[in-house]
């Protein structure tokens, strides 16, 4: 079969692949615990359900403008004003099928063949693949001090005349780190002065713990929305726990939004009408909903830290946001794919190999699930990896036998 070179070079999404593996094991009746996926267990906000239901009941479910309904855009304008202190126009916004499409459209609209996009490790798995899909070159920058915090000096070394954009995700998937304000300021100022786009993937920006705050990049630029290099992507998936609704958006200058709208028009047309109404319901509804989700996740973070701190041999950084952490398991195994496979087979626990995020020897653990799953999942991992633990245990009615990696 003749498949294009480009398509062949794109790897699958490891998290979606693991979901599928876990689903198949569950179908066989195995009590799998999923610490892989980033998806809160909350119920959809009622205002989102009502928004969608009203639209459906109206029987008027048609195409909307490609870049989103005027009323959803109005809600996004309000959101941008409240959360970013920026007043933007409807022409500065495009609504997409999830933040994933926002990022793809953005990269597709900005990157010429051979243009370089700087991606900071540990990074969300899709960034490098998206850059490749636009025939661009992903340039991965890993902090040389071994931490999860990007450093300007490492980034400066990677910048070249081909650098088109830098992607920033804080709080960060997969490390859970919130980048320091001084770093955000430095990188915004650098990008503005050099004419490099700074794509701020803010999908977790309100899921921050311990009284911290994700400071918007806009705070550090005097440029208005038409001239700033700062571009913001966001969506309802994480902050409202509405992963299945597939609504995201981009805030950028008019010309870029116009181009992205053309790209989207030829690709998917508008996002689904009913789902746009749901997103509008969430954005216009009571926002205490977000705070209660945040508190639940913060509590989960505390549970996961307590469990991991008593896990011999591993090293873990305390996440300041998101619902992920990225412990270092090199004391047990350098190869994170082997380790994740081992834990799935032996302990029936799904984790995501760190190598997928550019950090070999680590595993991403999600604490977006229930406290019960988190505690039991980590207890099983400890059992599987501790040579002193009993050789046999029961998981449900299934006898599991431990053997070494
Ligand atoms: N950016 C990051 C960092 C993410 O983790 C995700 C989802 N896992 C997305 C973007 C995409 O979110 P959406 O569900 O809106 O497509």
Quick structural gist:
With 405 residues, the chain is of the alpha/beta class. The chain is built from 13 helices and 14 strands. The protein binds 4'-deoxy-4'-aminopyridoxal-5'-phosphate.
List the helices and strands and how they pair.
Blueprint: H1 5-9, H2 14-27, E1 33-34, H3 46-58, H4 70-84, E2 93-97, H5 98-110, E3 116-120, H6 126-133, E4 137-141, H7 152-158, E5 163-168, H8 181-194, E6 197-201, E7 230-235, E8 247-251, H9 254-267, H10 273-284, H11 288-309, E9 324-325, H12 336-347, E10 349-350, E11 352-353, E12 363-366, H13 371-385, E13 392-395, E14 398-401
Parallel strand pairs: 1-10, 3-4, 3-5, 5-6, 6-7
Antiparallel strand pairs: 2-8, 7-8, 9-12, 11-12, 13-14
Helix pairs in contact: 3-10, 4-10, 5-6, 5-9, 11-13
The chain binds 4'-deoxy-4'-aminopyridoxal-5'-phosphate.
Q: What do you see in this structure?
A:
The chain has 405 residues and is of the alpha/beta class. The protein has 13 helices and 14 strands. The strands form 4 sheets. Strands 2-8-7-6-5-3-4 form a 7-stranded mixed β-sheet, sandwiched between helices. A 3-stranded antiparallel β-sheet has the order 9-12-11. A two-stranded parallel sheet has the order 1-10. Strand 3, helix 6 and strand 4 form a beta-alpha-beta unit. Helix 11 packs parallel to helix 13. The longest helix is centred in the C-terminal third of the chain and has 22 residues. It starts with a helix and ends with a strand. The mean pLDDT is 95. Bound molecules: 4'-deoxy-4'-aminopyridoxal-5'-phosphate. 4'-deoxy-4'-aminopyridoxal-5'-phosphate binds next to helix 5.
